[in-house]
Amino acid sequence: MSRLFLALLFLFLPITSFSQETMKIDSIEQPLYRPLIERYIMDEIKSLREENQSLRAQVTKQIAEAKLESSDRAINYTTSTVNNIFYIITAAASLLVLLGWRSLNDIKNSLKIDTAKKIQTLTSDYENRLQQIEVKMTERSKVIIETQKNITDTNSIHSLWMRAGLEKGDEDKISVYDEILSIKPDDIEAMTYKADALLEIGEVRWALDLTNHAIELDNEYALAYWQRACSYSKMDKQTEALNDIKKAIELSDTLEDELLNEKHFENLHDNKAFKSLISES
């Protein structure tokens, strides 16, 4: 009997423990993934910074090694050429002396002049080649640095967009959008989303200026017209708002489904033209 009782006890003990763990998990109300996302973003930014520093060091080292190698090669080639010239001149001078074509002084002077001209020509040629190599290396370095900067800016902007998605307050979102615009001033998407956040806090005139600037940069961006229509609607400029709504739908027909869901269009619900747009959609 005691053995049977112990067996039943061990059988029901995991079930009771599992029930208690389930009750603990169900009692959790706050999301646990937010700190993990923030930690992931910080680790990614740190990793990118370390990779950028390593890349910069490698590029600098490669440029220095390339310049040193080119200089050594040019000097060795010049030295070999000059030595060969002297060997040829010595052999020719010996032959001329033996044959008696010229006197020793004439040969000496002629050799000096010819050697100086040849050395000057070779030196000028290799100086030009070295300058061309330096120019090419400088241009490639600029391209690499510019590409590295673009990669860094892209990664930073991506991280800021992820951060903006996590922010709950409109003021905090506006601050993140300002950081994006400080990196990329012509980011029309950041301007448009910032305008939407400004409408939420009542800054209608500021939002209108932003959407106007975004449309100046890209007059084919549908969301910019949509946000400007929201600003016009808040200012009770129904004609301008309806014109921008039509333009936004013309550029992106998926916005038709959002006509009734957009709370900033409440002033237009009694407008006949707005009702006709809804009926057409």
Describe this structure in words.
The chain is mostly helical. It is elongated. The chain is built from nine helices and no strands. The chain has two domains: 33-164; 168-280, Alpha Horseshoe (Serine Threonine Protein Phosphatase 5, Tetratricopeptide repeat), CATH 1.25.40.10. The protein has helices at 2-26, 33-99, 104-166, 170-183, 188-200, 204-217, 222-234, 238-251, 272-280. This is Tetratricopeptide repeat protein. Keywords: Repeat, Signal, TPR repeat. InterPro entries: TPR-like_helical_dom_sf, TPR_rpt, Ycf3.
Show the helix and strand layout.
Elements: H1 2-26, H2 33-99, H3 104-166, H4 170-183, H5 188-200, H6 204-217, H7 222-234, H8 238-251, H9 272-280
Task: Name the descriptors.
281 residues; mainly alpha; Serine Threonine Protein Phosphatase 5, Tetratricopeptide repeat; disordered N terminus
